[in-house]
Amino acid sequence: MRYLSTRGGATPQRFTDILLEGLAPDGGLYVPERYPRADLAAWRALSYPRLAAAVLAPFMDDVPGLDALVARTYTRAAFGSEEIVPLKTLEPGLHLLGLSQGPTLAFKDLALQLLGELFEQVLAARGATLNILGATSGDTGSAAEHAMRARRRIAVFMLSPHGRMSAFQAAQMYALRDANIHNLAVRGTFDDCQDLVKLVNADAAFKARWRIGAVNSINWARVAAQVVYYFCGYFRATRSDAERVAFAVPSGNFGNILAGYVAREMGLPVERLILATNENDVLDEYFRTGCYRVRRAARATSSPSMDISKASNFERYAFDLAGRDAARVRALWAELEETGEFRLPPGPGFASGLSTHADRLATIRMVHAKYGVTIDPHTADGVKVGLAHRPPGVPLICMETALPAKFAATIREALGREPARPAGFEDLEKRPQRVEVIDPDAEEVRRAIERYGVAQA
Ligand SMILES: *Cc1c(COP(=O)(O)O)cnc(C)c1O
């Protein structure tokens, strides 16, 4: 499989060549040259790791030993059960797909755990090292650190806004004791953290000397890893490959639902992909009006992992909508730079809606009262919008993107009590923490990398 840039300015690359890259050199995103065909009949009975190997094989055809690598990733030890993504039936035709059973209790583990294994293997084959520099407002940073911990060729430098995450989220990162994980709490906002990452990356000599890499949501391997659970959820919720389903997806950067779109392009019978946003409704507005309009800044909400001002993976979908014409994509993004928006009619098979803080609380209460199940605020956004836009007579699968334990304040507000904690997390906030508090100064970040980073072999 070759990968192309959505802006058309990069030579086609193999998977292992784009794995460690972020954006393509022309500023575009890498996309596969075609979508492989699914073999539903052969895939239906497979275990999660075997299904993952089958789905990923055509995308990652230059990774030796992919089957074994995938089997090392999707284990009961890491995800709590052989099912990896358990399907919970609330009532006939209404399901929750449990994507948040991994080490950090959010769906990002499903992609990042695989990325950790892939990075290690590809770096070892090349005799190379990598210093990962990232910024997080919560879920991505902890999932990345847990995926990269104790990997010898990799060090992680994760910037987080000092004092602005929940105690649980902060502890998930700061309580890691691994020598290759470095938490830098920045006296500032998440935007300040992102600006620091950009500043350090803008220093090309420093970036090359220290092999600075990223694990951001535009990495194609993350999207590919997420395609797997759309197939898995479909097989678990249906009896025959003639049935159709709908998925409800709490969305921020358009990474999760893009994977659902790719699964459908591969032949998965998906009647409708239902996109849910919170008050940050860039994507809902797009699917309702055909106008993609980015915002100056995101609003802080009670489903914080969906707080975005633009959707970084959207360009991949737009590339297909534009007939895979890179010149048109370049023109659209030039217009976006200039005016802050562009128009592009959405394709078929999507619906969208918006969920507010009040909707979140009401949905958490409704699901708890009716089904005895506690869902997290992001999942609640998906359930609320999914129920409003489900096609009649088709099973609805709602993606559970985090466990309620991560977002206790909103659960207390909705239900008047603490969410349950999974085993092993009881004393999380009481564990000793390793974090360095720094000023929003790129020099401090560079100093930390020079002191603790892995040097090139
Ligand atoms: C990241 C995240 C989302 C949004 O996913 P995208 O791929 O950015 O659309 C939703 N819910 C939770 C809990 C997340 O961590």
Topology (SSEs and partners):
Layout: E1 3-5, H1 15-18, E2 30-32, H2 40-43, H3 48-56, H4 66-73, H5 76-79, E3 87-91, E4 94-98, H6 108-126, E5 130-135, H7 139-148, E6 154-161, H8 167-174, E7 181-186, H9 190-202, H10 204-209, E8 212-213, H11 220-237, E9 245-250, H12 255-265, E10 270-277, H13 282-289, E11 291-293, H14 314-321, H15 326-339, E12 341-343, E13 350-354, H16 357-371, H17 377-389, E14 396-400, H18 408-415, E15 436-438, H19 442-452
Parallel strand pairs: 4-14, 5-6, 5-8, 6-7, 7-15, 9-10, 9-14, 10-13
Antiparallel strand pairs: 1-2, 3-4, 11-12
Helix pairs in contact: 3-4, 3-11, 4-6, 6-7, 6-11, 7-8, 9-19, 11-12, 16-17, 16-18
The chain binds pyridoxal-5'-phosphate.
Residues 106, 108, 139, 217, 250-256, 305-306, 378, 401-402 line the site of pyridoxal-5'-phosphate.
List keywords for this structure.
single chain; 457 residues; alpha/beta; Rossmann fold; six-stranded mixed beta sheet; five-stranded parallel beta sheet; 15 strands; 42% helix; globular; binds pyridoxal-5'-phosphate
Structural class, from secondary structure content? Answer: alpha/beta
Categorize the overall geometry.
Answer: globular
CATH-scheme architecture of the domain at 83-106 and 220-415:
3-Layer(aba) Sandwich
Q: Alpha-carbon distance between the termini?
A: 30 Å
Q: Count up the helices.
A: 19
Please bin the fraction of helical residues.
Answer: 40-55%
Radius of gyration: 21 Å
| Approximate strand percentage | 15-25%
What is the number of E strands?
15
User: Would you give the CATH topology of the domain at 83-106 and 220-415?
Assistant: Rossmann fold
Identify the strand order in the major beta sheet.
3-4-14-9-10-13
In terms of quaternary structure, what is this?
single chain
Q: Unreliable segments (pLDDT under 50, ≥5 consecutive)?
A: none
How is the biggest beta sheet arranged? 6 strands, mixed
Q: What's the level 1 CATH class of the domain at 83-106 and 220-415?
A: Alpha Beta
The hetero molecules present are:
pyridoxal-5'-phosphate
* Mean pLDDT over the residues: 95
